[in-house]
């Protein structure tokens, strides 16, 4: 007697998903191609802008940003030094490619995630409908995201941006909603009694009070975007992840370790600056 699961109870929805993707490509292929071209122009333009800056000027800007965020001279000197070490390893251009990818992905996360978090905090029905979707987005393996974006956008930087966006979006949405939900309702009621409109209450009271939580969500999104760098390199994103992937494929341990430590250094720089801006006392 076989111990396998009965075949009569088995089913597959893979064909449905394939038909959905085919339908999207057939009916919205031109729109997807247009979005892809515009996003690619943005990415390439940002990369070229970063390349136009002298390396010392970019390091100085990072140092000034670190000092403005933390008011710490030590941090303002240490963080640019970490980026300088990446340049000393001969990975400066790949660093700029990775930085452009992370900045664009994080920017899209902010444009989508913060309004979505506000919607979840103000609309209980939206919260009940969207939270399960966020759960799925957070628990699906990262490689699963590559399959649909490859079908819709092909190889290159654009599908890497969308895969990174899907992977890094949930923390920002959740923490934005959490920060707004923790605000004392009496503050908003008092503002309402003084004649403040809903938009004024949101912009002048709710968002400033929720800013530490929002910045924590942004920090988590950036870290998750950086964790996708190696995975995104598999579909043509290039950057530091490309060297890690090449080290794995050729068993070049040194090359993989150098690129991996460069990703860690970039993550530390972004993490320290975003954490400093998210401190409640600022």
UniProtKB/TrEMBL annotation:
Keyword set, alphabetical order: Cell membrane, Membrane, Transmembrane, Transmembrane helix, Transport
Keyword Zinc-finger: no
PROSITE patterns xref list: ABC_TM1
Domain ABC transmembrane type-1: 95-274
Predominant subcellular localization, coarse grouping: membrane
Segments traversing the membrane: 52-69, 76-92, 98-121, 142-169
InterPro entries on file: MetI-like
Sections of the chain in a coiled coil: none
Location relative to the cell: Cell membrane; Membrane
Organism: Pseudomonas maumuensis
Pfam family of the protein (one): BPD_transp_1
Domain of life: Bacteria
Protein name: ABC transporter permease subunit
Annotated family: Belongs to the binding-protein-dependent transport system permease family.
Membrane topology per record: Multi-pass membrane protein
